[in-house]
Amino acid sequence: MVVTSEFAVVSPGWVDVVLDPDDDLIAELGNRMGRVWACERFIRLASGNPELVAFWESIQLKEQERIEQIKSLLK
Question: Is 7 helix (H, G, I), strand (E, B) or coil?
Fold first, then answer.
């Protein structure tokens, strides 16, 4: 009889649940979406400072590109 477990020992005394790799991608997707929303706020707050607005817009664009990458991996 073969017994499988959903738990893996990470280090002595600690047990961690083995998760589906998609769970990590979904969590990262949520984190990056939060960063995009934060960038929108930072852009509004930086109005009047074109250099700072450009910086936050570039960060937002990079995060949006990563979001698209993650979405393509989840398909």
Answer: strand
Instruction: At 68, list the tokens.
Output: 């698209």
Rounded to the nearest angstrom, the gap between the alpha carbon of residue 34 and the centroid of all alpha carbons in its chain is 8
Please give the biggest Cα pair distance in the chain: 69
Reported pTM: 0.70
* pLDDT score at 10: 55
Residue 40 lies in a domain: yes
Q: Does residue 48 lie in a domain region?
A: yes
Q: What is the pLDDT of residues 12-42, one digit of tens each?
A: 666 566 567 888 899 999 999 999 999 999 9
Q: Is residue 4 part of a domain?
A: no
